[in-house]
Amino acid sequence: MKISARNQLKGVITDIQTGAVNSIVAIQVGDYSIKSSITNEAVADLGLKVGEQAYAIVKASNVMVGVDH
């Protein structure tokens, strides 16, 4: 696999929560759990399963944080 994104974090899938359209996939990378919302179709196409290795690939120009006060 070759892609342009440089933030490729290899880990293990620890959880897949399937919804009506999207799934939340959790990948354990060291001490951190990274979660991504992807379509159920993508989960099936990639053959994702808990316990298997996968990459969390981050491609973002901004990370925003907000709170209500």
Number of domains: 1
Mean pLDDT: 91
Low-confidence parts = none
> Which structural class do you get from the secondary structure elements?
mainly beta
Count the beta strands.
4
Task: Give the C-alpha Rg.
Answer: 13 Å
Order of helices and strands: EEEHE
Helix content: 10-25%
Q: What best-fitting shape do the alpha-carbon axes yield?
A: globular
Number of helices: 1
Question: Could you outline the blueprint of secondary structure elements for this entry?
Answer:
Elements: E1 7-18, E2 22-29, E3 32-39, H1 40-46, E4 53-58
Antiparallel strand pairs: 1-2, 1-4, 2-3
Task: Report on this structure.
It is a single chain. With 69 residues, the chain is mainly β. It has a single domain, classed as OB fold (Dihydrolipoamide Acetyltransferase, E2P). 10% of the residues lie in helices and 49% in strands. It contains one helix and four strands, in the order E-E-E-H-E. Strands 3-2-1-4 form a four-stranded antiparallel β-sheet. 4% of the residues are buried. The model has no long low-confidence stretch (mean pLDDT 91).
Features:
69 residues, OB fold (Dihydrolipoamide Acetyltransferase, E2P), 1 helix, 49% strand, globular
